Amino acid sequence: MRLTKHLATTALALGLAAGAAAAHPLDGLTAEEYQKINQILREQKVADDDTLYPLIELKEPAKAEVLAWKEGDSLDRKATVYFTSADGFNEAVVNISRGTVESNGKTAGQPMVLFTEFMNALEGALGHSDMIAGLEKRGLKPEQAFCLPLTGGNFFTEEYRNSRLMKVPCYQVPEGSNFYAKPIEGLFAIYDIGKKEVQRVIDTGVVEQAPKDSWGYTEEEVAARLPLRPEMKPVTLVQDGGPNYRIDGSHVEWDIWRFNFRVDKRPGLVVSNLDVNDDGTWRSVIYQAHLSEVFVPYMDPTEGWYWRTYMDSGEYGFGLFLSPLRAGIDCPSHATFLPATIADDKGAPLVIPDAICVFERNIGDPAWRHFEVFAQTPETPVPAEGRPATELVVRTASEVGNYDYLIDYRLQQNGQINIYVGATGLDAVKGVASASMKDATAKADTAYGTLIAPNLVAANHDHYFNFRIDFDVDQPANHFSTMDIVPAKLDASSPRKSMWTVEHNMPKTEMEARYKLSAMQPRYFHISNPSREGYLGHEPGWMIHHGSVAYGPYDYANDPPMKRNAYIEYSVWNTVYDPEQRYAGGKFAMQSDGSDTLAEWVKKDQNLMGKDIVTWFSAGFHHIPRMEDWPVMSTEWKTVHIMPHNFFAHNPALTLRKK
Question: Is the keyword Glycoprotein assigned to this protein (predicted)?
Answer without folding.
Answer: no
